[in-house]
Amino acid sequence: MSEKKPVIRVRDVMKTDFSTIDGVETVSEALKKMKSRKTSVLVVNKRYDDDEYGLITAGDIARHVLAKDRAPDRVNVYEIMNKPVIAVHPDMDIRYCSRLFADYNLVRAPVLNGREIVGTVSPNALVLDGLYRVC
User: What is the CATH number of the domain that holds 87?
Assistant: First the structure.
């Protein structure tokens, strides 16, 4: 009889220390926050209760600001952010989360418990903090 592998959940590998920004802030402000927090992704806050979270990445800034020679202090986060974003639940098995990342070419996903963000997860976390545990 084969031994059942333990299920590793998103909550086991998610990053609970994440940075947020408001959509009305400029890309310059986003870059300063990314640099000071040593991250390449910021969660964009909801504007009101029925709104959705967004994400802005260094890649978004490279594609939509740097490559187009736009001034970072004249572009607002909301102009280039991704919203709505695909979010995952903390109880999701990391194997299914990994499939979601592969199917939709995701670089990061917010982890939502109900309507509140409790963390973020990346493919690196799924592999290095999740899969590595079972090896």
Answer: 3.10.580.10
